[in-house]
Amino acid sequence: MDKTVRTRFAPSPTGFMHIGNLRTGLYAYLFARHNGGKFILRIEDTDRERMVEGAEEMVYRTLAAAGIEYDEGPDRDGGCGPYIQSERAGIYREYAEKLVELGGAYYCFCTKERLEGLHGENGTHTYDRHCRGLSAAEARARIAAGEPYVIRQKVPDGIVSSYTDMVFGEISVSSDDIEDGVLLKSDGMPTYNFANVVDDHLMGITHVIRGTEYLSSTPKYNLIYDAFGWERPQYMHLPPIMKDAARKLSKRYGDANFEDFIAKGYLPQAVVNYVALLGWCPKNNAEKMTMAEMIDAFGVDGISVSSSIFDEAKMRWLNGEYLKAMSEEEFFAAAKPWIERSKAGGKFDEREIARLMQTRVDVLGEIPDKIDFLDEFGPYDLSMYEHKKMKVDIEVAKKAVEVSIGAIERVAEWTEDGIKQAVAAAAEEAGMKGGQVMFSMRVALTGQPSTPGGAIEMAAVLGREESMRRLRFSAKLLKEHTAAE
Ligand code: GLU
User: Fold this and answer.
1) Which residue, 159, 306, 419, 461, could crosslink 352 as a Cys pair with Cβ 3.0–4.6 Å?
2) What integer pLDDT is reported at residue 332 of this predicted model?
């Protein structure tokens, strides 16, 4: 590529950032970085009625969390600003008027009532080009008289507008099927159709990367480039992301919001990694990739033309891989807030809990449910001690719990290793199998049929005092049970 590549992400602040928006931004970023180019953020807020409070801030937050860095944007001037469309009203007016002079657009004074009365053959309201023939002098006079007007695109007659999309190949539309659409509204604001062209040109965008919903209107935008005499950019349209075989993921229905996933305990980098794979596959078929690896591998040849299905189970799996790959220290830092919000928070050894959880959860949000039980200790069903294969019954358990009490009293250094050695030694002395003691001890410490981790890990998490208290409590339960029989 001879020119510096410039791509842009142009979200509209009309709701949260769903996975589809994020993917568009990510691909534009990866493409720019892969080609040593620049990535620009532009806020498309001309549709004032659909604006949602706080949505613009969410764009910045999401990009920052996702590690997608833009070179130019509302808060990073690169000489092509402003980067917020509502601040560019004067620019659109200037260019719309210029386009009228160049013969690519015209003033239209049709009233709402007239437009509503236009009924096409199949119930459509295609504009009938009523004002297309007005002379410049007449238009000027009516504007001077204060008549409201819009500026419309003057679509050439009888030509075919074609381009080659980098993903979908050749796309052609007959100009006879293109309406003379509004470019500048009566309130002076541009339509998306006009603003995207003016901005992409003035911001020097070389590659326009966006969703397929714009694939077939792009020939119409290209006619605007042509009328200005501007060079058209290249286009890369991206197939939709589906919720299932029939439905698209949608912002309107609250599907798949990036920040919701983070709040559920997904790691931003895992979500971004997963999102990258929705419609793109690197040549080496890698799945777990860092941002640098994605930048390195990204290319249009790996982009699929068919839609992809958002599979949360797959994303969970990938997130789990990220968690397992963390150092103990990193995982502890990530898990700590989740441990703290569980019932066990602040009561037991949090480092031990984190160690236990690292290989046992795919998403950090699973932690509280998995450890709440630590805090819920009380009378429990003694039949849990019956285990045929282990050769444990209530009588054996009674002895085993006594043996563990003796062992715990003797642990020199309170670490998993220290506890393990003491329990193993005590079992041997008592002539019991290690497995019998461990199994009984685990039940006695937790009162649970199954736990993440065995007796030694549970004791390490609970701490010496609490372990002792629970073992004594269990010993008493077992004793009372035998006495009652
Ligand atoms: N504001 C448009 C959207 O959010 C951007 C389309 C484009 O990238 O041109 O759909």
Assistant:
1) 461
2) 98
Q: Following CA atoms 306, 310, 314, 318 in sequence, which dihedral angle do they give, to the nearest 10 degrees? A: 100
CA of 209 to the centre of ligand 1 (A): 9
The DSSP-derived string for 141-201 is HHHHTT---EEEE-PPTT-EEEEEETTTEEEEEEGGGS---EEE-TTSPBPHHHHHHHHHH
pLDDT for 447 equals 96
Please give the Cα distance from 186 to 11 (Å, whole number).
24
Distance (Å, whole) CA 416 – CA 27: 47
Q: List the Cα angle 140/141/144 in 5-degree steps.
A: 85
> Is 251 known to be catalytic?
yes
* 196 Cα: distance to centroid of ligand 1 (angstroms): 8
What was the pLDDT predicted at 379? 95
Using one digit for the tens of pLDDT, what is the confidence trace for 48-95? 888 899 999 999 999 999 999 999 999 999 999 999 999 999 999 999
Annotated catalytic residue: which of 154, 220, 251, 370? 251
Report angle CA 171, 174, 180 to the nearest 5 degrees.
115
> Which residues is 171 bridged to in the sheet?
163
The whole-angstrom separation of Cα 168 and Cα 238 is 9
* Atom number of ligand 1 nearest to Cα 213: 10
pLDDT surpasses 70 at 404: yes
- Are 186 and 110 in contact, with CB atoms under 8 Å apart? no
